[in-house]
Fold each of these.
Amino acid sequence: MTTITLKVNGQSVTKDVEPQTLLVEFIRETLRLTGTHVGCDTAQCGACTVHLNGRAVKSCNMLAVQAHGADVMTIEGLAAADGTLHPMQVAFNQCHGLQCGFCTPGMVMSAVDLVKHHGAASDESVRAGLEGNICRCTGYQNIVKAVRSAAAQG
Ligand code: FES
Ligand code: FES
């Protein structure tokens, strides 16, 4: 076991973890933050996307010990403390950017990173920016619409 300390959704967390524990397992099973999903476990679908030090990462693709000292945000930490949804969450809702919702937490976390660092100037750039996130319901057009709508609201 290794002791790690990190920030998760603004709160400091110290836990003992096995060296082989994936960050996504730590988030879901140790912290019980089950909004972060596991679709493939092999870094292909993006369902497990969280923010690590402000950038989107696939949390099935790194070990929990690698997050020692980091600032992690999961989908549970995206809304304001009073429950007000993040503009990206509102846009997904308004634009019907989800069907079953399985990919949605990862899509939203990736989309927030995309808009913050690259903007959303065209449908093509949004599609390219989100190519690491797969929607099995194939609702891509409304997802693109949602991301561009959130970006337009600044
Ligand atoms: S579960 Fe991590 S990319 Fe699919
Ligand atoms: S909404 Fe079902 S997987 Fe994307």
Amino acid sequence: MAGGAGAGAGGAAAGQATAAAGDVPILIAEFPLNRLYTARGESKLFEIYVTDGAGRPLVSVTEGKEVSGGGTAPGGFADLLPKSAQTAGTREYAASGVPMLAAYSPVGDLGLFTIVQIPKARAFEAARQLVTRSLLIAGVVCVAALALVFLFASSLTKSLIALTRATEQIGQGQFGVQVEVKGGGEIAALAARFKRMTEELSTREAALKDANQRLMESEKMSALGQLGAGIAHEVKNPMTSIRGYAQMGQRKLPDGHPLGEYFRTIVRETDRSLEILKNLLKFARQETAEMSIIDLNTVVSDTVKLVSHQLMMKDVRVEARLCEQSLQVSGNANQIEQVLLNLFINAGDAMEGKGGGTITASTDMPDALTARIRVADTGSGIPSEVVKKIFDPFFTTKPVGKGTGLGLSVSYGIVKEHKGEIAVESKVGEGTTFIIRIPIARQASEGVAAAAPAKEKRVRVINLR
Ligand SMILES: Nc1ncnc2c1ncn2[C@@H]1O[C@H](COP(=O)(O)OP(=O)(O)O)[C@@H](O)[C@H]1O
Ligand SMILES: [Mg+2]
């Protein structure tokens, strides 16, 4: 076969058996090399050979070379091809020390073989690259996922730590604590609820403190009242006797006797003491006043008329601004009048140093159940350290003989007896406002409810079952 097969680019060996006498018969086979070209075109990595049965290359199609005759593989493929059977197969072997992957297949019955081989390193290169790239991508994804998890976890723990710290602070009574949690999600919703809870707690704490303060105040007043009433009772009788004997002595003395002046002084001073004791008893409210339905607007306007003349002499103007509704409360008009008189007198005193001013007595209903009276003056105002004590019995800033310190404590007792409240707002140099709130009498407040718009009435649900 050697030298019998014409090989060249695109060439083919045309074969025809011709036998002449004495000639050695030659078998010429035609081998279409263009198919090798086609196979070669599909991959530049493969080397393609056509060998004889002993593995000697006849034709090779290797990278960068044309289809050519002769072997280029050193030593041929004797080791590769099967020794006996004409079978196809694949094998790994080393060609000049280079590990190769090869596939061989017999070509018809000619005893020829086609071999396709590729260096092992190149064959697995794509797979190796794929594995490397996959590992790289997996690594990047893992790092990114870890970073994300870390970020999420750290923001979560940060929020939880903030919430825990806030809980501790609330436990210590610091209700103003703020918890800032950014973004949305359940933790943010929890923080929002937490914030609402602290606000509610803070409001309740303030209300509790306020109620506690009032309770202490009313307990203090009640203790003072009991004490005062006890003393007043004990002192009132001997004082009345002293006064009686002094009057008797006065009558027995002849006119112009020098002792007459002493008796007169005793009567005057015991009168003053008895007046104080009377006030003390009033503050303690030992005797209960008769209550009836009264209109506070009427009481206010009557009292204003009563004092305006007297106050005008001090250059003080008194104004009444009454609301249009009638303020019906269950009360005692004389007592309320006394409260208002105390307030007007105090206001007049506070404006004395200023050389006149205005007292405004106004009434209104802040809600359907409450009547409110305000007595505002443009006087000296009350310093904050004094405000706390002004309702205490015997607290006065006025000189002896002018103030007894009982006016406001008596007023406090009266307002309490009317189930109401008295409060004060004051600014030094600007003036003071006393505010009295008394509940509207029940039948009157029911009247207000009846006069409410029809829409509100319809909302009332009566369950008949
Ligand atoms: N309108 C007011 N302006 C400034 N201070 C006032 C006013 N009303 C009351 N006060 C203060 O409250 C104190 C107590 O008042 P009160 O109980 O009526 O006793 P008194 O008038 O006998 O001093 C007063 O001495 C005064 O210091
Ligand atoms: Mg007074």
Amino acid sequence: MTSTQSNSKGVAVITGSAQGIGRSIAIRLAVDGYDVVINDLESNKENLEEVKKEILADLPERRVLIVLGDVSVEEDVKGLIESAVKEFGNLNVFVANAGICKSKPLLETTSDDFESVLSVNVKGTFYSYKYAAQQMIAQGEGGRIIGASSLAGKKGHASLSAYCASKFAIRGLTQSAAIELGRNGITVNAYAPGTIQTPMLAGLAGSADYNDVYDEFKRLSSVGDLGTTQDVSSLVSYLVTPEARFITGQTITIDGGIHFD
Ligand SMILES: NC(=O)c1ccc[n+]([C@@H]2O[C@H](COP(=O)([O-])OP(=O)(O)OC[C@H]3O[C@@H](n4cnc5c(N)ncnc54)[C@H](O)[C@@H]3O)[C@@H](O)[C@H]2O)c1
């Protein structure tokens, strides 16, 4: 993979990278040698600026571009990729990480709840895969596309019907895109984390005591622990390497051994 900067491994775009798993992926890919384009909602701009500062403090030779935008808006995703290519000359890796979760029993889930979750998680990933692939095909050098599914994309969970539906959909998108794009040298995979300590997970604990919720998650896992954002970013780090060329269409569970495919 090449980019216009000779000491760079390429250009990686990571959506929803102001915090949590996306932030960790952006930092890890920068450490791995990628110039990174970090994206999030306008409301999370300050955290994005912190991520940029943190990367440049340790890696002043890296290039980091902030592009604000909402992945559920088609023009924003197109604009994100256009900005990446305009500034850095290329697109080699796209991580469609941005996602939202709403926890409500089925009977209390409104049409608006359902639509908003599917709009960010499914439409956002669809736009990301489509426009990233379009750019990578035009470049003719292959690429790596990665989406965010979940343990909730492998099995249903109470009070997570909209979220589960959205994360199951990521698996379908990932498999279909992998089949269509494989002969262009583009692999498409997704990560399916279990319980990773992030602001999203803390939000899910709601008014319950975090420690009780975390203890329950630990009890469910085979390794007796919660995951860290680094557990997910190290998987992504491998999936973007040339060595991972034969892995495509997979939604890889990373949950400490709760669910077995
Ligand atoms: N934390 C977990 O345990 C866990 C488990 C399984 C899957 N996931 C998935 O991993 C991904 C990251 O999760 P996280 O735990 O880091 O969540 P998080 O809430 O901590 O971070 C998600 C980021 O996405 C951003 N975002 C939300 N909507 C957006 C939009 N429309 N456009 C652009 N950015 C948007 C948020 O502002 C936030 O910065 C999500 O897709 C999530 O569903 C997380």
Amino acid sequence: MLASWMGNPMHTLVLDPGFLPIKVISWRRALCLSFLDKVEVLASYEREVRTVSHSYPTPSVVRLLHAARPGPQVVRFSRKNVYLRDNHRCQYCGVQYSDHELTLDHVVPRVDGGKTTWTNVVTACAACNRRKGGRTPEQAGLPLRTRPARPKWTPMTLAQRLPVHDVPEAWRTWLGVASGR
Ligand SMILES: [Zn+2]
């Protein structure tokens, strides 16, 4: 069994047999695929995963050895992904902020039965969130800039939308992201 180092958000970029990036998976999954000989490892992170008897480099970029079955690729609902969907822009005042200055706002407040879903959660700056309080945009007189929706992009597009310093160095060649910033 793999010894764990929990809480590390490292991900692995997956390329199809023709070297085109297709998705992002967890390094654990990537390591499993590599043990199963389903992928070849093209690049690794410096950090190693240790088991009782061995240590393995953590895969950063892997290439599928056989074409994958096409399946639905959905973007997971998460704070970070909502920020990315909204381009880090407060959906009330329209100003762009960095992650730590942003909050998630329930358009229809939770107390009124508003769900935590792509269509009811938007990016809001702390000031707008406070101003809106537990009210709907109409009640608060704070109209939404865009109607929130589930993003149409795939986990792949997500990687391309990440700030360049969040994209692992080894991925940049494959994603066509400029280096050196
Ligand atoms: Zn705002």
